[in-house]
Write a structure and sequence with these properties.
Elements (H helix, E strand, L loop, with lengths): L1 E9 L3 H9 L13 E4 L8 E6 L2 E11 L3 E8 L2 E11 L4 E10 L7 H4 L2 H17 L5
Antiparallel strand pairs: 1-7, 2-3, 3-4, 4-5, 5-6, 6-7
């Protein structure tokens, strides 16, 4: 198992961060490596979607939605599974954003995104871009 996580405190409002998370089609505007995203139904546990990434597309499934505080989804691949969790906590300043990716399975080592460290490098910038957009600073 591999766990990659980034936590950021921001002046952005929790409601605005949640809006960006819940508008799946907008994920590519702040999430590096995504060229497209769509959900095939309402944002709730069990709903499936598709992510367009360089070289193809990946299906994903929403695992949990706790309105305003948590969104969790997973992508399955050959001999591996990535679980992505977004957590949101209000603070005096605005909110604390946590993005966590847990990758399990033997196939992790065959994934070029993992092998080349792209996920570890892209996650912090994606969270910063999300916070800037939510705070009104654009991508």
């Amino acid at each position: 198992m591999t766990l990659i996580q980034h936590i950021l405190e921001t002046s952005a409002s929790p409601a605005e961060v949640w809006r960006l998370w819940s508008e799946v089609e907008g994920w590519p505007s702040w999430q590096d490596g995504l060229q497209g995203a769509r959900l095939e139904g309402p944002l709730k546990a069990g709903t499936r979607g598709r992510l367009k990434v360089p070289g193809g597309s990946r299906r994903f499934r929403v695992l949990a939605v706790e309105e305003g505080t948590r969104l969790c989804w997973e992508v399955r691949g050959f001999l591996r599974r990535a679980t992505v969790e977004y957590l949101l906590e209000p603070t005096e300043m605005g909110c604390r954003i946590t993005h966590r990716i847990e990758i399990v399975g033997l196939g992790v080592w065959m994934d070029p995104w993992f092998r080349q460290g792209r996920i570890s490098r892209a996650l912090p910038e994606g969270v910063r871009r999300l916070a800037r957009t939510a705070a009104g600073g654009g991508a």
